Amino acid sequence: MIEKDFDISFIAALALNEKQIQQNYRPLIGVHKWFARRPGTLFRGLLLSEFGQGKLQDLYYQANQLPDIIVADPFMGGGTPILEANRLGCNVIGADINPMAHWIVEREIAALDIDKYRQGADQLLAHLREQLAGYYETTCQICSNRHAPVKYFIWVKTQVCSACQQTYDLFPGYTLATNNRHPRYVLICRHCGELNEVDNPKEPGSCYQCHEKLITTGPARANRCLCPHCQTINRYPGTPDAPYPHRMIALEYHCPTCRPAHKGRFFKKPDAHDLARYQEAEARFRQLSPQFVPDDPIPMGDETDRLHRWGYRRYADLFNSRQLFGLELSCRWIATSAQGEVQHALSTNLSDLLRYQNMLCRYDASALKSLDIFSVHGFPVGLIQCESNLLGIIHESKGTNVGSGGWTNIIEKYAKAKAYCHQPFEIRHHKGKKTQVSIRGEWIGPSNSIKKSPENKKNAIDSGAVACTLWPEQQPVDGLSKTESAQIPARIIDLRCVSSTELRLPPESIDAVFTDPPYFANVQYAELMDFCYVWLRRLVPPGEPCFQQHSTRNDDELTGNNTMGRGIEHFTAGMSSVFQNMKTALKTGAPLAFTYHHNQIQAYLPIAVALLDAGFACTASLPCPAEMGASIHINNTSSSIVDTIFVCRTTGTVSRRTLVETPEAIGRLVLNDVAKLHAAGVKVSAGDTRCISYGHLIRLAIWHLRTCWDSAAAPSEKIARVNEAIEQLGGWPKVNAYLSTYVTVPPRQQWVALEDEGAYDSCNEDGGEDDAVSF
């Protein structure tokens, strides 16, 4: 069982390493962007702790088959619990209200002939290169090679002065590149636009071309900019009727001829030919009658209102003409020349490619790369934009990608993702070295092929919702003989595009629920995913049921949303409904385990209400790293990278030592968790410790309220009752006061437990042997 066999330190170390470079540990996430994916290592550990026979550390690197287990995930999102359970041989049931989530998981788990996919992708690239290659080339300034491929085009927004009516650039700064990955700083001259390489940006000297003084600070800041022509201060963005125009200001390119002897990157100011190439692409696009470019208006929303403030009214406004031209040609080829799962795969590739092929991408002056539109989980509107080479660039001798954001990048990523389905692996860390361990005998998907479920197969979910049910044809499994493969039962893969508030499963039909539910007031995934959806719904074959609606947004989505009037009571009622549905479907005593964290304790209250309404007790709250601390969207914030895994059951036992009632006792449990995370190499921050404490407070509040809970009370009353129970336990302030006595905070906010908690794991507070409390 998870409560006894889950090894916090072992899994935390794996999860921490995975989240640093998640695509190296779980390449399958490369199928398509999804947000805040939890570590696959975590859910593998949870599944093996619950159903495996043996020590977790031994089972983890072995092939496992759990063919008689049914696992459900009512909030499948990017599909991590579903994929990990399927890999272990479980039958899986996944549901999500967002059609993009359904499509992504379907592509992740669907069988794909990789050779056929490669052939189709090569044909697409050949077609696009024939049509577009010249628009992504420049003349090398060193050797005069006229066909040097451009990695990135850099653009600046321009504005018309309200006083003199002249156009000027909205430069926030003139540093194009720092010396982190280039020998010198690269500064843009504010007078002539020439690029200058300097050693010291604080004393940059004068422009080599026009001899004017170089500076690093631009005039555009704090939503104001000084017009260089008449010295009038103009505000931006104001209320523009159309998106701000852009002017091309720089290129980073790749020259195969000069590269062997050249130090650093290749930068240049665009010349007349570069500008003419863009204008030609623009003219060719105007001659088209687009079939796939979305003309959908951008609806109002918590995230999309930022786009409206900058004059973006339709999704097509977020792209320049060269991007639209290349994307339209890509869509036309995919729609007419590819078939079956290869067509689905290439359509998914195009959807994922959109993240880099738009005019909201930014150029990272330090890392010297494009930052995709979702790098901050929102719609960032900057003043400097980065346009990536649509085709992608392959290194002439290494065969690897140069730069990011092109078709070749997306294709290679997808091929690696699907290869991982056939040959999954784990990464073992030992004495500072990493070893890739192939797990022969496991795979992801139904098998090597897909067919629709036969009529005589009984679905685990009622009919009526959009579904994809996959059944395998028995074929040899990598690492197993034909005889051994034939003995493996067929897997059920039942994916549904439906609100889990309406999900009705047969009573006592599933063995576990593992999920990562929405966090109240979290990122508005539906608003962000519409950016891809409006393209994909035009590209998928007619009749795909998930793509009948015009948006991924749904009134029943369980997130707080001011624009749609969804508050905490809506979230609470929805979570309660889902947990009650799962309670009915779970076998007696089977676990509902989910990850959760938030900076505010109030965001946990609906979760506690939902569990109490469904009749669950929380038998454990376990910490595990879930985010990367350096992630752009949480870097330099007080956000936690540590999730609490809540393990819940309707009946069973609870360790007596965890049923405490004072802030001091809760604090000791928190310190014990912190010590285990430290043993895993996790640098636990104040935010992490706060979230670990919230987990224990919620778990204990549920325990104390479960026998006197009135599920018929008003949502506001139930939320108040949970809050009162937390206060009776002392709440976060008193737990924090205790922790401050036993914990020091070095400059980097690394918490250090000062007391030895070793004996506390096996003894209760009275010093006797730990025992279990039945419920």
TrEMBL record:
InterPro entries: DNA_methylase_N6_adenine_CS, SAM-dependent_MTases_sf. It comes from the Bacteria. GO terms for molecular function: methyltransferase activity; nucleic acid binding. Gene3D superfamilies: Vaccinia Virus protein VP39. This is Adenine-specific DNA methylase. GO terms for biological process: methylation.
